[in-house]
Amino acid sequence: MRYSRDTGNILVLFKEGGLVAFSRVPANELFDVTIPAENFFAKAAMCDLLEALAEAGDNETRIQTIEAFLTQQLRGIDPDPLVDEAVRLIKESKGLIKIKDLAHALYISQDPLEKRFRAKVGSTPKQYASIIRLRNIINSWSSNSSLTNASYEAGYFDQSHFIKDFRTFTGESPKDFFRTARFW
Questions:
Q1: Residue 3's beta-bridge partner residues?
Q2: Continuous H helices in 74-158
Q3: Beta pairing partners, 11
Q4: How many CB atoms lie under 10 A from the CB of residue 140?
């Protein structure tokens, strides 16, 4: 969890596949959708949580309250080692892995891999690899770097594809994004 000093909000971030521990709905059906927490948790439990958060004296206590609440709400789910390994391989490659090669490394065909991955993670392996590739650029960015060099090092073949992906995920051009120093 993160606390934003700018907005005063506490942001709950789930790891890949983490959302499915709280929802019976496949993660891909929730991708890029805003849904009220009441759709996942009982209304009474949400009221109790909001009351506890209002009474908390500081953000550290609020974070502990949210963590305790989420721990109580966990539903028993079976892990999917194949999807976990796919996530690991995509991260290890910094998003520079072909999905055909990923499927081959996991001894599964592409279609079943994509279906299982979407259900657990919420995106296709290719979308997720693009996110990891972009996140790697952002995390390794230095103001002394050239955006052109950064795009080539991240496996982009030309600047236009890099800028298009960057805008898709951040809503800004790379130049504007890095100018604001507001990183994820």
A1: 10
A2: 81-92, 99-105, 110-121, 125-140, 147-153
A3: 2
A4: 12
pLDDT in tens, 126-181: 999 999 999 888 888 777 678 888 888 888 888 888 899 889 888 888 888 888 75
Distance CA 165, CA 128 (A): 12
For 6-39, letters b (16+ CB in 10 Å) and e give eeeeeeeeeebbebbebbeeebbebeeeeeeeee
The number of beta carbons lying within 10 Å of the beta carbon of residue 95 is: 20
Query: Which run of H or E residues covers position 3?
Result: strand 2-3
**Boundaries of every domain in the chain:** 2-73, 81-180
Q: Each residue of 106-124: pLDDT tens digit? A: 999 999 999 999 988 889 9
Determine whether domain 81-180 maps to CATH 1.10.10.60: yes
d(CA 128, CA 64) in angstroms, rounded, equals 29
